[in-house]
Design brief:
The protein has helices at 40-48, 67-70, 88-98, 103-116, 132-144, 162-177, 189-195, 213-219, 259-272, 285-292; strands spanning 2-11, 14-24, 29-33, 55-60, 63-64, 73-76, 150-154, 181-185, 198-203, 206-212, 224-229, 242-248, 251-256, 275-280. The chain is α/β, with parallel strands linked by helices and 294 residues long. It is globular, with a radius of gyration of 23 Å. It starts with a strand and ends with a helix.
Length: 294
């Protein structure tokens, strides 16, 4: 498990991180979200040893992270860092060999990964001839080829079309299922919400929310419910303790003033006819984000 505890970082008089703490668990995808300048990239660079924190610790499996531990990391920066004149396969093989792979095993691993990411037909093309989206896929392959225990990706889905997003997402889910601890930042909140097991929200250099996705959604839920009934749900307008949020025929979203009111509405709906569904409505990640960063 990767643990960040009480990280502070300042540039001159500007403090960019303040008491940043969260965990990245093995076998889980952790989404790291925040606005521009919130502190995501600075945090990742401290984890990787590119920057030094002013205070705080980064540990892996209980021990302070050192250079040997970071050889177990895979990293994809937001800025592309591949050699433009090298062929795609040659580039990824070279990076695998830097991590101790033999030429044969590096070639096998790089070829399989590039094919899995949809670059099988571009193995012998120079990196500079690839589209920006395909360069992004190659950059992800560079972070993954040595089978890291910890994977840190800065905006890995930036510039990808929907097919490429699915390919990259599938690879990351496979790595997490195999036990890798995966941390990635993204501005695409719907994608983060769909993929991630855990979420970390940062704003102005401070962690505003962190933890299991469903636990965070439950924590930030209000008494809002969704009803799909057999007939017109307009009767809800006249119910005490109910505020209609969305309504269309047999479908309604509404807030209640108490759990008792919700149970009364359910009993009344059943008495009026078949109920297709009645369930609490949890907030989206975008709604939670707006709430905690105010």
């Amino acid at each position: 498990m990767l643990q960040l505890r009480n990280l502070d970082k300042s540039y001159a008089t500007h403090q960019v991180l303040r008491d940043v703490s969260f965990d990245v668990l093995p076998g889980r995808l952790t989404g790291f979200v925040g606005g521009n300048g919130a502190g995501k990239t600075t945090t990742m660079r401290i984890v990787l040893g590119v920057l030094a924190a002013d205070a705080g610790t980064v540990t892996l499996d209980g021990g302070t992270v050192g250079s040997d531990d970071r050889r177990r990391f895979g990293y994809m920066p937001e800025e592309r860092g591949l050699y433009p004149k090298m062929k795609v396969l040659e580039q990824i093989v070279y990076l695998a060999r830097l991590h101790g792979y033999s030429r044969a095993s590096a070639t096998d691993a790089a070829t399989a990964l590039l094919e899995r990411l949809g670059l099988g037909e571009r193995l012998n093309d120079n990196v500079e001839t690839l589209s920006l989206g395909n360069q992004q896929r190659a950059q992800i392959a560079a972070a993954l080829v040595h089978d890291p225990d910890v994977l840190i990706l800065d905006e890995p889905f930036s510039g990808l079309d929907p097919i490429a997003v699915d390919a990259v997402a599938g690879v990351l889910q496979e790595r997490a299922a195999a036990g890798t601890a995966v941390l990635f930042s993204s501005h695409q909140l719907d994608l983060v919400e769909r993929l991630c097991d855990d979420l970390v929200i940062i704003a102005a250099g401070q962690i505003r929310a962190a933890g299991d996705r469903e636990a965070l959604r439950a924590q930030h839920s209000t008494n809002r419910y969704e009803l799909v009934s057999a007939g017109d749900a307009g009767w809800l307008r006249d119910e005490p303790g109910v505020r209609i949020v969305d309504f269309e025929g047999a479908y309604a979203v509404f807030d209640v003033d108490s759990d008792q009111t919700a149970q009364r509405i359910l009993r009344d709906a059943v008495a009026r006819g078949d109920v297709g569904s009645f369930a609490p409505q949890h907030p989206t990640l975008a709604q939670i984000f707006r709430e905690v960063v105010r």
